[in-house]
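Raw record, unedited: DegT/DnrJ/EryC1/StrS family aminotransferase
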Amino acid sequence: MNVRTQPPAISFIDVGAQRRRLGKAIDDAVARVLNHCQFAMGPEVRAFEADLAAFCGAKQVVSCASGTDALVLPLRALGIGPGDAVICPSFTFCATAEVAVLVGATPIFVDVDETTFNIKPGDIAAAVETAKSLGLKPKAVIPVDLFGLPADHDAIRAAADAAGLFIIDDAAQSFGASYKGHRLGTGPHVTSTSFFPAKPLGCYGDGGAVMTDDAELADIMRSIRIHGHGSDKYDNVRIGLASRLDTIQAAVLIEKLKIFQDEIETRNKVAARYAEGLADVCAVPTVPEGYTSVWAQYTIRVPGGRRDAFAEALKAEGVPTAIYYPIPLHRQQAYKHFPVGKAGVAVSDRIAGEVIALPMHAYLEPEVQDRVIDVARRALKK
């Protein structure tokens, strides 16, 4: 009797391969922290902030406990709260809108571009009108550089300047990417990122950072991340948070940052191989001229109600997939009562039923990439 053996499973994101590559460097970095015992705000935290600033070109870097806090800190520092509106895309992870609600503001949802999945700059003005019609004061916009690809920041800046909006770029998935020759971290008023383990630059727990060229704003955020402290830590000058980046995580990130550019280049080679093998059978992601992506995800579109069958076909052959995001925020239970901008969110509704991500990381061997392509092609042709 012929028994069909299950092919070996492929890792969707292979954190273990990176761990094996860094090996002793990570072990030694963690050991140094365990030996000096400065587990909160130890010297590695300041060293990592300096390394991050040098990498992206920002004048100020404020590390913190998570990517979510990296969005909360600037909102709090700006005094945004009840009665204010924060504009953000509906097609994104919930944290983008969650932070507005956490500070007491109201998120206004806008649509995304059909090709890039990033915020439509042209819809920002309509969202401002929506906010004003509801008696809200539009204060900020949080564009998202989704799946590792920068949004159209020049167009966003023009729309934001016209409406007097502060820009907080949600680069949780895109740190390391570049826009018109500049790495993300400069350009918007503030750039926030996440070091969650699955991110292109991830730690071994939670972590985040805020990048800006505004020294005064950075100082306020540094105060907020440690309970609103002033020059005397027992005479707090504002209401704050407990949002320090752990020293051990900073030590890990210092080592990971050393190989990050190499990993970015490898991710781009994987993406190019996928595009070459799949472009004739499905809609593959595109990178506009002058942009680079870090490919946090490699997301294709499978329309016509065939996505679930496609995912099952790949699963049967050991190829994992993931859906980011099956439900846009304006339809989720916690957010469906918040307003949508006047331009609507038709694209977000449509692509939520079509997008599906393939395995993507810097340690996918060429033969594994070819296997993903082969299985995907056969499934798409059914």
